[in-house]
C-alpha cells in the first residue's frame, strides 16, 4: 500500500474505552452523534469542529437511530427507548448557548421523552413510520414493532406486533467472553429490493429513512434470499444479526411472515451490510461479519449447480480478527481489529466468482481474497461510520478510537490501479469495448462538429473575400484610377457574326481579375445593356437587358470571358450603355436548398458592386466593307438585303426623307437618294500630338506620321479600332487593311455609310498661319446613321483631345476667324429657325426647315483645336 | 408533648399515600397512554416492594401483620398487573409463611396448596382472616393467569366460601362500619370484591373453554350459561355467550349456536369472534349470501380503528385479558386477520358469481398488502394464499369481468418476478419420498422451485386466456406455448405414479403440485388447440386437443372441441363418439378446491351441446 492514511483528530471526549458498543450516527446535516455506551450522547458539529452538545440520558445507551426527515432520534437505553427531537433541542441549545460557547451544553433527557418502556433494548431500527426494537427476553429474542406517530408532538407509540426467536446457546460463547472483544450486541438492518424504488408509491418516505442501516439489494438476489412473495409485496426485509451467530430475516409487510434464519456465522455477528453497488444503486453482495473474523459473502450465482438457474451463493471465509466494528462503501468493507484498520475489497471477490464461471477451480481464490485484506495502519478504532468517497478516489471515514477520540481517517487513493491490474480478461475486454464505442461516438460527434466549423470558416472566408473585394472596388471609385490600372476591370469587344444567315452583333466581355482575391462561388458578373436614349423605344418602356454570369473560380491573373448577344442586324438602338457590376449573393453562399427552405427573403439579398459603365456606340457597331467583302455580301445576301432595303425605305419615309436608301453598288439606275452628311474638323496638330505617343515606340510610325495622308489614315484607323472606355471593335474576320482614308461601312441598322478623313485647309486665304485641319466626314443616306456616327466620332475625338490636352498643352488661341464665321452661320440659322417658327407653315415645312438647319450645323463644324 | 409516630403509623401512612397516588393515576388512566400506565405501575410496584422490604425487615408480629398483608396484597397486584407472576407468587408464599409464624404454626411444606390450607386454618376467625383471604384471591388470579386450573379446582370449597365472605363481608359492610375500619385498616389498591367477581367469571370462561376443548360440550354449556348471569363487564358476558354458541355448534345445533352468537353480539357489539363463528356456521350450512354478508361485516368491523376497543377491564390494574390467557380459550377466540377475511370475501364473491364485487375486494386486498401501513403483524398461520397466487387469482377475476388488459398486467408482474428463478429442469418426486427429496426442490430459503415454475406457467396460461378473450388467436397460441414449454420442464421421477389426479391425496403437497401440473397441461394444450381451431389449423388443433385429453382426461371442454375438430375434418363418426364419451364423463371435479386461475375461463368460443346432439342425430339418420 503506497501512501499512508491521514488521521485527523477532531474531538476528544471523556470516554474510558470500555467494552461498550460505540455507535456513530451521521446524517443530521453537519452534526454527528456519538454514543459510547454510557449515559451520554455527544453531538459533534463538523462545521464548528467541536462537541456542541451532550445529551444526558437516564441510563446507559445501547443503540441510536435517527429519522433525518423529522430530525428525531430514538435512543435505546437500559430502561427504555427515548425519543429526542434533535432540531428542537439544538435550536434551543444554540439560543441559550450564545454566551458560553466554549463548553458544550449539557441537556438532560427527561422521562417525558420515554416512548417505549421496554428494558434492555439492544438494537433499534426505523423503517418508514415503524420503529423496531430487538431485545432478549428470557429464552427468546423479541423483535417488536411500534408505530410511530405522524405528528412529532404526540408521544404514543403503539406496539402492533412482535416476533419471537428462541435463544440458542452460542457454541463459542465462552470463548467470546474470555476474548477481549467488544460487548456482544445485535445488528438490525433493513434491506429493500432494488426495483421497489421505481414502483412503490411510498418511495418518498422510504427514501427519507435510508441511512447507514438501509440498503438496496439487487432484485434477483433479493428474491433468491427472501422469496418472491416479499418481492411481489414490495416489502422491505429486516435482517438481524444475533450474538449467537444467526442471521435472521423478516419480510416486514408480508402477512403471516415470521423470523427465519438465513445463515449462521457461529460467532457473534457484529456487522451486516450490503456492498458492490452497481450503477443503478443496487448492492450485489450481502456481507455479514462475525466477531472473530468470519465473513460471509452472499451473492447471486448466475449459473447454479442444478439446471442453470440462479442461486444465492454463500461464500464464507475468515479474515484476521477480532472484528470490532465495520462499515461499507460502494465496493469495500472496512473493519477494525483494534490493532489495525483493514480493508477488504469485495470487488475482487466477485471477480473470483466470475472466473469460476469459466470453469476454473477458484474456491481457494475467493478465500484468498477474503484472507488478504489490506492494512491501513490505523489502530485502536472501535467505531466506524460514514465512508465518503471524494472525486479524487480517496475515501474518508469517521472513526472513534479506543481513547475516545473522534477521528477523520483519510485513506489514500491507489486501489484503483491495483484493482485494474487484477481485472479479469472478460472484464477488461468488456471495458475496452465500452471505451472503444465511447471513442467512436466522440469521434463521430467531433467530425460532425468539425464539418460545421469548416463550413462556417468557409463561409466567413467567403464573406471576408466579399468584403475585401467590395472595399477594393469602393476604393477604385474614390481614387478614380484609369481603367487599365483597376484591380478588377473589364473591357468589351464587339464582333459581328453570322449565324443562320443572319448577322448579329455580340459583345464579348473580358473581366480581368488582377486583385489578390479569388472570385469564387457566390460571385457573379452582371451586365446590364440599355439604350443610351430612350426615345427610340416605342412604348417608353425600359428596354434594358440583364445578363449575369456566375464565376466558378476566377483566380488572380485570370480573365473571364463572356459573350452576350446585343442585337441582330437592324434592330438595335445605338449607342447603348453597358454597365457591369460584380454581385455577391448570400444565398448561393449558404447553399441553395437550405436557403430555399428557411429564408425565402434572403434569396434576393446580395451585394452589388458596380465595376464600370460603358457606351457602345455606332463606331463599335460598324461593319466595315472591304472592297472584296462588299460585293460578296451583296450577292450572298439578297433576301436579307431586300428586307433591309424595305425597312430602310419605310424608316426613311417616316422621317420624310425622300426616296429609298441606296446601298453601295446596288442599283445605279435608281435615282440617287438624298445624302446626309456631317463633318468634324480637328486641328491636325492636335491629332498628330495625340497620335504620337501611341506610336512613340514605333520609329517608322513616327516618320509616317508626318505625312498628312498617313495621319488621316491613322486617325481613321484609330477611330475604327481603338478601344475607348474599354470597348473595342472586334476584328471582323480579316484584319482591316485600310489603304485609303475612306472607309465604307454598314451601320447596325444596315445603312451604308462612308467615313472619310482628309486634310483640308480651313481659314481665309489672307491668313498667314493657315491652320492645317483634318476633316472627318460622315456621309450616309440614313439620317439615323449619320447622327449616330457623328455622335460616336465626336465622342472619340473628345476622348482623344482629353488625353491630348493633358500632354500637349496646346496654347493655340481661339481662332477668331473661325469664330467669326461660326457666328455668321449662327445668325443665319437663328433667323432661319425663328423664321420657321414665326411663319405659319405646315408642320411638314417646319420639319424640313429644322432639318436643313441641323444639316447646316453638322456640315460646317467648328474646328476643334 | 410530641410523640414521634410509631413505625406502624408511618408505614401505613406511606402505604395509604402510595395507594392514593396509584388510584389517581388510574383515575386519569383514560387519557394517558398504555406506556404511561405501565411505567407508573412499575414505579408503584417498586415503591410497594421497598416498603414491604422495610416491614418484613422485622420479625413477624401480630400488630404489624395486618399492614404487612395489605402491603403484600398491593405489591402483588402491581406485580401481577405487570405479568411478573413468579415474583408475586414468591411474595405470597413468604407472606403465608409469616402468617403461620405469627399464629405459631410451622409449615414444613413447600406445596402451595397445603400451605394455603394451613394458613387459612391458622388465621381462621382472627383479624387476619380477611387479609389472608385477599391474598388467596391473588393466588387464584395467579393460577388463573398461569392456567393452573386444577389448583383452583383443588381449593374449590375454600374459593366458594371466600367468595361468600368477601362479597358479603365487604359488599354489605355498612358504610359506618367500613368507615370505622377504614381509619385503622390500610388501604388496598384494588377492591377485593371486584377482584373476586372478576375472578369468578374469568374462571368460568376459562373452565368452559377447557371443557369444550376436551369435548365435554354439554357440561361446559351449563356452566357457561350459569356464568352468563354473573355480574361482569359486557365483554366478559359476551364471551360466555360466544362460548355457549361454540358448544352448541360442537353439539351440531347450528341454529341455536347462531342464536347464541347473536346474543353475544347484542351484548358486546365488538365481539368480532361471534361474527366470525356465525360466518363459519353459514359456510357450513351452505348459505353463501349470508356468509358473504357476514364476511363483509366482519371485515368492516376489523377495519375499525382499534382505538374504539377499550381495555377489557376498564381501569382496573388487573385486566381480564391477563387472566384469560389459556391456549384453548385464545384458540376459540381467535379471529383471522382483516386481510384473510377480505381474501375469503373476494374469493367467495367471485365463486358465487358476484364477480365485479369480488374484483373490487381483490384490488382492495392487493392495495392493502402494498400499503405502507401493512405489516407482518402476527405470526399465526395465515389463510392467505401465497403472493403470486393472489396476483393470479386477482388477474383471473379481472378477466372474468372482461378487463383483460389489467389481467395481463398482473400476470406480467408474476412472470417478471418468477421467471428468473425458474430452473431449467425440475424433478417432481413421488410423495412418499417427498420428505427426503424436498431439499432438491427447495432453494436456499425454502422457496419451492416447482411452485415458482407453476406460478410462471399459470401466469402464461392466464395471459393466453386474455388473448383468447380478445380473439387474438396468434398471441394466445404464443402464450399457451410458453406455458407448455415451462410445464414440460417438470420431470416426474416415479414412473409408476399415476398421472391421473389422485383425488384422495390432494392434501399431500406434491400430489397437489402434480394435480395442478396435470390440470394446467390439460388446460393449456386444450386452449392452444381451440386457438388453432379458430385459426383453421385443424391438424395442430387436433394434436393439441388429443394431448390435452391424455394429460387431463376429465376436461370436458377438450373433449367437446376434439369432437368439433374431428367433425370439421370430416371424421363425423369419430366426432360423435368423442362427444358421447365426453358427456358420459360424470366426474365432477370440485371447482371450489381448485385455484381460481386453474378454472375454465368463462369467455371464449363455446360449443352448444344441444346443437352437437342435433348433429349426431342427423348423422344417425343419414
From TrEMBL, chain A:
Which terms in the GO cellular component ontology are assigned?
A: Fanconi anaemia nuclear complex; nucleoplasm
Residues in a coiled coil are none
An example of a Gene Ontology BP annotation on this entry?
A: interstrand cross-link repair
The identity of this protein, by name, is: Fanconi anemia-associated protein of 100 kDa isoform X2
Source organism? Pundamilia nyererei
The organism's taxonomic lineage, starting at the top: Eukaryota, Metazoa, Chordata, Craniata, Vertebrata
TrEMBL record, chain B:
Coiled-coil-forming residues are: none
Which superkingdom, per the lineage? Eukaryota
The cross-references to Pfam families, in alphabetical order and at most eight, read:
TPR_8 (PF13181)
Q: Which GO terms describe its cellular component?
A: Fanconi anaemia nuclear complex
A Gene Ontology biological process annotation? interstrand cross-link repair
- Note the InterPro entries from the entry: FANCG (IPR039684), TPR-like_helical_dom_sf (IPR011990), TPR_rpt (IPR019734)
| Name by which UniProt lists this protein | Fanconi anemia group G protein isoform X1
**Which organism encodes this protein?**
Pundamilia nyererei
Gene for this chain: fancg
Amino acid at each position: 500500500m503506497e501512501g499512508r492514511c491521514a488521521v485527523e483528530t477532531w474531538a476528544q471526549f471523556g470516554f474510558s474505552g470500555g467494552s461498550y458498543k460505540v455507535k456513530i450516527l451521521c446524517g443530521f446535516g453537519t452534526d454527528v452523534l456519538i454514543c459510547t455506551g454510557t449515559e451520554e450522547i455527544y453531538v459533534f458539529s463538523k462545521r464548528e469542529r467541536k462537541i456542541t452538545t451532550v445529551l444526558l440520558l437516564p441510563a446507559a445507551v445501547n443503540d441510536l437511530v435517527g429519522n433525518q426527515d423529522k430530525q428525531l432520534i430514538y435512543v435505546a437505553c437500559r430502561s427504555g427507548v427515548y425519543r429526542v427531537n434533535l432540531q428542537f433541542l439544538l435550536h434551543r441549545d444554540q439560543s441559550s448557548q450564545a454566551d458560553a460557547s466554549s463548553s458544550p451544553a449539557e441537556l438532560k433527557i427527561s422521562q417525558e421523552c420515554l416512548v417505549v418502556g421496554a428494558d434492555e433494548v439492544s438494537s433499534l431500527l426505523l423503517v418508514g413510520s415503524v420503529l423496531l426494537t430487538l431485545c432478549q427476553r428470557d429464552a427468546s429474542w423479541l423483535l417488536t414493532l411500534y408505530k410511530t406517530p405522524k405528528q412529532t408532538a404526540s408521544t404514543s407509540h403503539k406496539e402492533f406486533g412482535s416476533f419471537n426467536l428462541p435463544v440458542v446457546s452460542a457454541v463459542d460463547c465462552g470463548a467470546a467472553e474470555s476474548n477481549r472483544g467488544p460487548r456482544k450486541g445485535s445488528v438490525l438492518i433493513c434491506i429493500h429490493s432494488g426495483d421497489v424504488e421505481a414502483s412503490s408509491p411510498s418511495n418518498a418516505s422510504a427514501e427519507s429513512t435510508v441511512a447507514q442501516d438501509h440498503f438496496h439489494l439487487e432484485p434477483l438476489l433479493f428474491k433468491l434470499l427472501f422469496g418472491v412473495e416479499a418481492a411481489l409485496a414490495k416489502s422491505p426485509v429486516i435482517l438481524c444479526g444475533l450474538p449467537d451467530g444467526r442471521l435472521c430475516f423478516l419480510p416486514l409487510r408480508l402477512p403471516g411472515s415470521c423470523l427465519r434464519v438465513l445463515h449462521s456465522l457461529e460467532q457473534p455477528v457484529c456487522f451486516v451490510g450490503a456492498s458492490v453497488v452497481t450503477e443503478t444503486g443496487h448492492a450485489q453482495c450481502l456481507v455479514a461479519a462475525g466477531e472473530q473474523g468470519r465473513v460471509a459473502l452472499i451473492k447471486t450465482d448466475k449459473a447454479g449447480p442444478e439446471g442453470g438457474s440462479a442461486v444465492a451463493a454463500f461464500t464464507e471465509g475468515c479474515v484476521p480478527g477480532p472484528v470490532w466494528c465495520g462499515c461499507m462503501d460502494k465496493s469495500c468493507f472496512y473493519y477494525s481489529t483494534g490493532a489495525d484498520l483493514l480493508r477488504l475489497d469485495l470487488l475482487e471477490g466477485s471477480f473470483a466468482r466470475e472466473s469460476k464461471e469459466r470453469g476454473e477451480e477458484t474456491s481457494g481464490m475467493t478465500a484468498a481474497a477474503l484472507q488478504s485484506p489490506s492494512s491501513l495502519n490505523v489502530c485502536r478504532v472501535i467505531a466506524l461510520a460514514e465512508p465518503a468517497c471524494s472525486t479524487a478516489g480517496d475515501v474518508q471515514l469517521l472513526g472513534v478510537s479506543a481513547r475516545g477520540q473522534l477521528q477523520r481517517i483519510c485513506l489514500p487513493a491507489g486501489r484503483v490501479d491495483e484493482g485494474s491490474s487484477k481485472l479479469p480478461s472478460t472484464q477488461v475486454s468488456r471495458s475496452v469495448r465500452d471505451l472503444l464505442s465511447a471513442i467512436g461516438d466522440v469521434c463521430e460527434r467531433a467530425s460532425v462538429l468539425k464539418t460545421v466549423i469548416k463550413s462556417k470558416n468557409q463561409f466567413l472566408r467567403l464573406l471576408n473575400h466579399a468584403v475585401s473585394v467590395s472595399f477594393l472596388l469602393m476604393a477604385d471609385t474614390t481614387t478614380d484610377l484609369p481603367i487599365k490600372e483597376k484591380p478588377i476591370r473589364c473591357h468589351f469587344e464587339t464582333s459581328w457574326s453570322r449565324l443562320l444567315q443572319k448577322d448579329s452583333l455580340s459583345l464579348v466581355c473580358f473581366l480581368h481579375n488582377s486583385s489578390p482575391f479569388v472570385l469564387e462561388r457566390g460571385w457573379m458578373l452582371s451586365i446590364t445593356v440599355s439604350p443610351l436614349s430612350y426615345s427610340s423605344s416605342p412604348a417608353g418602356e425600359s428596354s434594358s437587358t440583364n445578363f449575369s454570369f456566375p464565376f466558378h473560380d476566377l483566380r488572380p491573373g485570370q480573365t473571364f470571358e463572356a459573350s452576350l448577344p446585343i442585337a441582330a442586324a437592324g434592330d438595335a438602338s445605338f449607342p447603348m450603355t453597358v454597365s457591369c457590376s460584380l454581385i455577391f449573393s448570400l444565398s448561393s453562399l449558404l447553399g441553395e436548398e437550405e436557403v430555399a427552405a428557411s429564408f425565402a427573403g434572403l434569396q434576393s439579398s446580395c451585394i452589388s458592386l458596380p465595376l464600370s459603365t460603358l457606351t457602345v456606340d455606332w463606331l463599335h457597331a460598324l461593319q466595315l466593307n472591304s472592297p472584296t467583302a462588299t460585293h460578296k455580301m451583296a450577292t450572298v445576301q439578297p433576301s436579307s438585303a431586300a428586307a433591309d432595303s424595305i425597312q430602310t425605305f419605310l424608316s426613311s419615309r417616316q422621317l420624310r426623307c425622300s426616296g429609298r436608301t441606296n446601298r453601295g453598288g446596288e442599283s445605279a439606275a435608281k435615282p440617287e437618294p438624298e445624302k446626309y452628311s456631317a463633318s468634324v474638323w480637328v486641328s491636325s496638330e492636335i491629332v498628330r500630338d495625340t497620335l504620337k505617343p501611341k506610336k512613340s515606340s514605333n520609329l517608322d510610325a513616327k516618320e509616317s506620321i508626318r505625312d498628312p495622308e498617313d495621319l488621316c489614315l491613322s486617325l481613321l484607323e484609330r477611330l475604327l479600332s481603338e478601344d475607348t472606355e474599354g470597348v473595342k471593335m472586334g476584328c471582323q474576320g480579316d484584319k482591316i487593311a485600310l489603304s485609303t482614308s475612306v472607309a465604307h461601312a454598314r451601320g447596325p441598322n444596315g445603312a451604308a455609310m462612308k467615313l472619310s478623313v482628309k486634310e483640308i485647309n480651313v481659314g481665309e486665304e489672307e491668313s498667314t498661319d493657315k491652320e492645317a485641319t483634318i476633316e472627318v466626314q460622315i456621309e450616309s443616306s440614313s439620317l439615323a446613321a449619320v447622327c449616330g456616327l457623328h455622335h460616336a466620332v465626336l465622342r472619340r475625338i473628345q476622348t482623344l483631345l482629353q488625353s491630348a490636352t493633358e500632354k500637349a498643352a496646346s496654347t493655340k488661341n481661339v481662332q477668331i476667324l473661325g469664330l467669326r464665321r461660326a457666328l455668321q452661320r449662327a445668325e443665319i440659322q437663328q433667323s432661319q429657325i425663328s423664321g420657321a417658327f414665326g411663319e405659319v407653315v405646315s408642320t411638314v415645312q417646319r420639319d424640313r426647315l429644322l432639318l436643313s438647319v441641323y444639316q447646316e450645323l453638322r456640315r460646317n463644324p467648328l474646328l476643334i483645336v | 408533648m410530641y410523640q414521634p409516630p410509631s413505625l406502624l403509623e408511618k408505614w401505613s401512612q406511606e402505604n395509604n399515600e402510595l395507594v392514593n397516588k396509584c388510584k389517581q393515576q388510574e383515575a386519569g388512566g383514560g387519557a394517558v397512554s398504555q406506556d404511561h400506565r405501565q411505567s407508573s405501575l412499575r414505579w408503584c410496584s417498586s415503591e410497594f416492594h421497598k416498603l414491604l422490604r422495610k416491614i418484613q425487615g422485622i420479625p413477624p408480629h401480630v400488630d404489624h401483620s395486618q399492614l404487612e398483608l395489605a402491603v403484600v396484597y398491593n405489591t402483588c397486584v402491581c406485580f401481577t398487573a405487570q405479568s411478573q407472576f413468579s415474583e408475586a407468587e414468591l411474595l405470597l408464599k413468604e407472606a403465608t409463611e409469616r402468617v403461620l409464624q405469627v399464629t405459631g404454626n410451622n409449615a414444613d411444606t413447600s406445596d402451595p396448596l397445603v400451605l394455603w390450607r394451613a394458613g387459612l386454618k391458622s388465621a381462621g376467625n382472627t383479624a387476619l382472616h380477611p387479609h389472608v383471604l385477599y391474598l388467596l384471591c391473588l393466588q387464584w388470579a395467579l393460577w388463573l393467569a398461569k392456567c393452573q386450573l386444577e389448583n383452583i379446582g383443588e381449593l374449590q370449597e375454600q374459593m366458594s366460601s371466600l367468595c361468600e365472605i368477601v362479597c358479603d363481608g365487604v359488599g354489605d359492610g355498612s358504610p359506618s362500619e367500613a368507615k370505622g375500619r377504614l381509619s385503622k385498616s390500610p388501604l388496598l389498591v384494588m377492591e377485593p370484591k371486584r377482584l373476586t367477581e372478576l375472578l369468578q367469571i374469568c374462571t368460568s370462561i376459562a373452565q368452559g373453554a377447557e371443557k369444550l376443548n376436551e369435548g365435554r360440550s354439554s357440561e361446559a354449556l351449563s356452566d357457561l350459561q350459569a356464568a352468563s348471569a354473573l355480574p361482569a363487564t359486557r365483554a366478559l358476558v359476551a364471551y360466555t355467550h360466544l362460548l355457549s354458541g361454540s358448544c352448541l355448534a360442537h353439539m351440531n345445533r347450528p341454529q341455536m349456536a347462531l342464536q347464541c352468537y347473536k346474543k353475544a353480539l347484542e351484548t358486546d357489539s365488538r365481539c368480532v369472534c361471534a361474527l366470525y363463528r356465525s360466518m363459519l356456521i353459514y359456510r357450513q350450512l351452505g348459505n353463501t349470501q349470508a356468509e358473504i354478508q357476514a364476511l363483509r361485516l366482519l371485515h368492516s368491523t376489523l377495519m375499525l380503528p382499534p382505538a374504539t376497543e377499550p381495555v377489557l377491564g376498564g381501569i382496573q390494574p388487573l385486566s381480564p385479558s391477563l387472566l384469560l390467557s389459556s391456549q384453548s380459550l385464545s384458540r376459540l377466540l381467535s379471529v383471522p386477520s382483516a386481510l384473510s377475511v377480505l381474501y375469503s370475501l373476494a374469493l367467495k364473491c367471485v365463486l358465487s358469481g358476484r364477480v365485479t364485487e369480488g374484483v373490487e375486494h381483490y384490488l382492495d386486498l392487493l392495495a392493502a398488502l402494498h400499503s405502507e401501513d401493512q405489516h407482518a403483524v402476527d405470526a399465526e398461520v395465515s389463510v392467505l394464499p401465497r403472493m403470486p397466487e393472489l396476483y393470479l387469482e386477482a388477474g383471473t377475476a379481472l378477466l372474468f369481468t372482461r378487463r383483460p388488459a389489467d389481467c395481463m398486467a398482473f400476470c406480467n408482474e408474476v412472470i417478471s418476478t418468477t421467471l428468473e428463478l425458474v430452473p431449467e429442469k425440475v424433478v417432481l418426486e413421488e410423495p412418499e419420498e417427498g420428505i427426503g427429496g424436498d431439499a432438491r426442490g427447495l432453494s436456499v430459503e425454502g422457496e419451492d422451485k416447482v411452485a415458482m415454475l407453476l406460478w410462471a406457467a399459470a401466469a402464461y396460461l392466464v395471459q393466453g386466456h386474455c388473448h383468447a378473450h380478445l380473439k387474438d388467436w396468434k398471441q394466445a397460441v404464443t402464450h399457451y406455448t410458453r406455458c407448455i414449454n415451462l410445464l414440460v420442464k417438470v420431470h416426474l421421477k416415479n414412473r409408476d405414479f399415476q398421472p391421473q389426479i389422485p383425488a384422495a391425496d390432494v392434501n399431500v403437497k406434491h400430489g397437489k403440485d402434480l394435480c395442478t401440473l396435470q390440470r394446467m397441461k390439460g388446460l393449456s394444450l386444450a386452449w392452444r388447440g381451440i386457438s388453432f381451431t379458430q385459426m383453421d389449423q385443424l391438424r395442430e388443433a387436433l394434436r393439441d386437443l388429443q394431448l390435452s385429453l391424455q394429460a387431463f382426461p376429465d376436461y370436458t371442454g377438450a373433449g367437446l372441441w376434439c369432437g368439433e375438430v374431428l367433425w370439421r375434418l370430416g371424421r363425423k363418426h369419430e366426432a360423435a363418439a368423442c362427444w358421447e364419451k365426453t358427456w358420459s364423463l360424470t366426474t365432477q371435479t370440485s371447482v371450489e378446491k381448485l385455484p381460481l386461475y386453474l378454472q375454465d375461463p368463462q369467455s371464449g368460443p363455446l360449443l352448444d351441446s344441444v346443437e352437437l346432439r342435433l348433429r349426431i342425430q342427423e348423422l344417425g339418420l343419414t
